[in-house]
Amino acid sequence: DVTEIEEKEAQAKQEEQIMKEQELSNLLHEKRYLKALGLAISLDRPHTVLMVVKAILKETDGRKHLEENIVRLRKDQKEAVLAFLVTWNTNSRNCHEAQAVIETLLKHEAPDSLLQYSGIKSAVESLLPYT
């Protein structure tokens, strides 16, 4: 009977998720945005990533801090953020944050580098009508 083992695994997974949620909350409270961005991306939480971006932009010199944080993300994390911001850009409440991230990516990534991102073609096609 593997039911007990499966229940323990599910419970362990749920506990790990709760721990990550708490860690994310703590990182945001401590204004450790780079780690918060990384954790929100790893949890695949587009809304949370958006909240982190909004929090960064509310800071003094928010654009500068956003650039510093986005530039330091790994390529796979930038790809995830790009996928998230396609959705953000379609909503007028979130389009400014999406545009700020797009601006940062376009400023700091070479065109050849951007072309290597997975899903870049569909992202650009989706961004153009709203940008």
From TrEMBL:
GO biological process: endonucleolytic cleavage in 5'-ETS of tricistronic rRNA transcript (SSU-rRNA, 5.8S rRNA, LSU-rRNA); endonucleolytic cleavage to generate mature 5'-end of SSU-rRNA from (SSU-rRNA, 5.8S rRNA, LSU-rRNA)
Any single GO CC term annotated in Swiss-Prot or TrEMBL for this entry: 90S preribosome
Signal peptide stretch: none
Keywords of this entry: Nucleus, Repeat, WD repeat
Compartments, record wording: Nucleus, Nucleolus
Domain annotation U3 small nucleolar RNA-associated protein 13 C-terminal: ranges: 21-131
InterPro entries on file: Utp13_C
Pfam family, one: Utp13
GO molecular function, one term: U3 snoRNA binding
PANTHER family: TRANSDUCIN BETA-LIKE 3 (PTHR19854), TRANSDUCIN BETA-LIKE PROTEIN 3 (PTHR19854:SF15)
Protein name: TBL3 protein
Organism: Burhinus bistriatus
Name of the gene: Tbl3
